[in-house]
Amino acid sequence: MTTVLQAPTSAMDIWSDEILADPHDAFTELREQGAAVYLESSDVWAITRYDEIRSALADWETFTSTRVAFNPQMNEVLIGTSLASDPPLHTQMRAALTENLTPRALRGLKGTIEEKADRIVAELVTRDAFDGVHDLARELPLQIVLDLIGVQGDVREKILDWGASAFNLLGPMNERSQQSFPLAGELFEWTHGMDGNQLAEGSIGRAVFDAGARGDIPPELCGHIIHQYLAAGMDTTIGAIANAVRAFGENPDQFTLVKADPSLIPAAFNETLRHQALLHAVGRGTTRDVTIDGVTIPGGSQVAILLYAGNRDPRHYDDPDTFRVERNPIDHLSFGYGVHGCAGQGLARLEAYAAIGAFCRHVESFSVGTAVPKLNNSSRALASLPVFDVVVA
Ligand code: HEM
Questions:
Q1: Alpha carbon of 345 to those of 155, 184, 201: distances in Å?
Q2: 64 — phi, psi (to 5°)?
Q3: Rounded Cα distance, 163 and 227, in Å
Q4: What pLDDT digit, counting tens, does each position of 15-43 carry?
Q5: Where are the beta strands (DSSP E) in 347-385?
Q6: pLDDT 10s digits, 306-354
Q7: Which residues contact 61 (CB under 8 A, 6 or more apart)?
Q8: CA of 344 to the centre of ligand 1 (A)
Q9: What's the 253 CA to ligand 1 centre distance in angstroms?
Q10: 307 Cα nearest atom in ligand 1
Q11: Where do the domains of the chain lie?
Q12: Class of the 9-392 domain?
């Protein structure tokens, strides 16, 4: 018989500026309170420990993605997207979404991405100081993902702000979300109002619309797919590349290890993702009563899955706050898990490996200043990262 315990509760607002800027202490406290903690101020259940997070993400029948956002308006807007649906609908949409992001589809891009990364870093290191976010981490996704999707002209300038506002709107209806409506609406109108001709010929964005025109996928899905590529693929990848530079700057011994043995680059990227999860809270809704670690979450509840807390869970990772590239945590939670596991991780890895590889080749040593977080309800990117005292390799 399962013993049902009184739920641990907390008055914490996990979307406050302080916790968005640095969730470490707050999330450690919640994780130590329990695997499932009721957050009174937002009427949300936080899932905080590694094993319970994996189990929840794997169990889409109990934890539905139809409440992936923490506000009903956005869940309404997202109806029909892969992100906000469950199987069997999700399975059909996911197939259309991933067709152009498979390792096979991306194979031809590796050389181009590596060349671009090399050029960007080689130019940057001629300066003594630069910004790790603006000058380095942003450049690859801006040059690669936008070309890949076929975004052309003035719209390119808007994508980062559009993507950040779409991420804000996945959070609760706080001030940040409310202010994001106009920009997120522009992205939605652009992706859903187009017929594909705005996207460059030969791009995967155009291929999505061609598939819609042939009847291979429902035409009304095309806008959704472009929306998801753009909203999900920019800030996350930028954040991950900037975090790698930051982690190397703060742990020069780890940088030396990767420089000496570039075969450690994938492991270093896994550790970067584990150490700094890029999504603040992943939303789900319970479809039935579910008991986690002796605590029952009622059916119909809103759930926040705290990937950062799970990645730092000492029950799963030894010495979890330490950045160690040789740990190679291939089972980290930062790309999610289960049917919604990140559809773009192959592309994110190509970009990050190329950026880290170029950085290790061109830089002998460097220092980093204080990283400034970019406050967002969902994505945990950086606003800036001062890089200085750069010594060229
Ligand atoms: C380091 C970079 C990235 C991180 C950390 C990341 C993280 C995530 C996470 C945690 C999820 C699961 C969300 C959930 O379970 O509700 C997800 C889903 C998704 N990601 Fe990524 N992502 C990254 C890059 C990308 C890129 C480059 C693209 C596309 C160009 C992309 C496209 C998507 C899509 C479309 C989904 C939804 C998949 C589905 O619903 O089946 N992501 N991502």
A1: 24, 23, 24
A2: -75, 145
A3: 9
A4: 999 999 999 999 999 999 999 999 999 99
A5: 363-368, 372-373, 382-384
A6: 999 999 999 999 999 999 999 999 999 999 999 999 999 999 999 999 9
A7: 86, 287
A8: 6
A9: 31
A10: 10
A11: 9-392
A12: mainly alpha
